[in-house]
Each structure stands twice: as C-alpha cells, then as structure tokens.
Specification:
The protein has 158 residues and is mainly α. The protein is 61% helix and 0% strand.
Length: 158
C-alpha cells in the first residue's frame, strides 16, 4: 500500500500454507504445513543482505535513528546504550560498547566527508527524507542501528 497504510500494513504478512513470502524464506521462516518447535539456525549471507539493504529495513533504521537523536541529542554513549537495549533486550558489555562507539565515530566522519552520501542514504523507503541540521550524525546513527538490527542476537530467539 502507500501513504499511512504502508506502515500499518507492514505489520501483517499474508501466509500461504506452503509458500511463505520470499523475505520470510530468506529469514528461514518455517513453512506452515509442518510443525517446528524451534527455528533452524543458519548463517546465510542472504539474511545479512536483506537486513542491511532492503528498503524496509533501511527506512526502519533511519526512523529509529531519528528518534534516538531526538531523545539523546549528540550523546553517543546514550544512543548506543538505548539502541543496543532496543534490539537485544540487554545491556552491552564494555567491549561491544567500545566497538560500537568506534563504528559510530567512523560513520559520522565518513558522512561528514561525503555529505551527498548521507542525503542519498535518506532516500531509501517511502518516508520523506528528514529535515535535519546534522545529516552526517543521523546517517551515522542509522548505520549503527542497521548494524544492531543485523546482529544474530537481535534476530534469533535463544
């Protein structure tokens, strides 16, 4: 659908008993003609490609980044802590926080050096690009969120 219905409808997926949607198949969703107690674990690179490049996930990362920046401003430690908790339901250990901090700093520096790439990043999805004074900051946080969305512990229930 388009407009506001796009976001309402993205919550629902029509299931066919023997043929789930292509995205759900890539994410190893079980078929509905047999019962599975536990989802199969896989390390398929296709899953990473979907989670990192699909317009739906890129737009979700951007919108999440907007809300994190609105709430925390430029406080990177608070942004990292809340984003990690949002996607993994736990607090990050110090080693992961420092890795995510360096990722965020690298991405912000990259987007500051290439402002057109930040604006290009915002064009993914149907939501209008944000009007921001800090496009490099927003794009950097969006990449951080996209990375967290791609963590195995974010997409696999243990």
């Amino acid at each position: 659908d388009k407009g506001e219905n796009l976001y309402r409808r993205s919550v629902y997926t029509f299931w066919k008993r023997t043929g789930p949607s292509p995205m759900m198949m890539t994410l190893d969703s079980s078929k509905k003609d047999v019962c599975r107690v536990k989802r199969e674990e896989t390390a398929s690179p296709l899953q990473s490609l979907v989670l990192l490049n699909s317009p739906q996930f890129t737009e979700a990362a951007r919108v999440t980044a907007e809300s994190l920046l609105e709430k925390h401003g430029e406080k990177s430690a608070a942004i990292i802590e809340e984003a990690f908790r949002l996607f993994t339901s736990r607090e990050a250990v110090q080693k992961k926080r420092s890795i995510l901090q360096s990722l965020l700093e690298e991405q912000i520096a990259y987007f500051q050096a290439h402002p057109s790439k930040a604006l290009e990043y915002f064009e993914s999805g149907d939501k209008a690009p944000p009007k921001t004074d800090l496009p490099a900051q927003l794009a950097g946080v969006a990449v951080l969120v996209s990375t967290l969305m791609n963590f195995d512990e974010s997409i696999t229930k243990r």
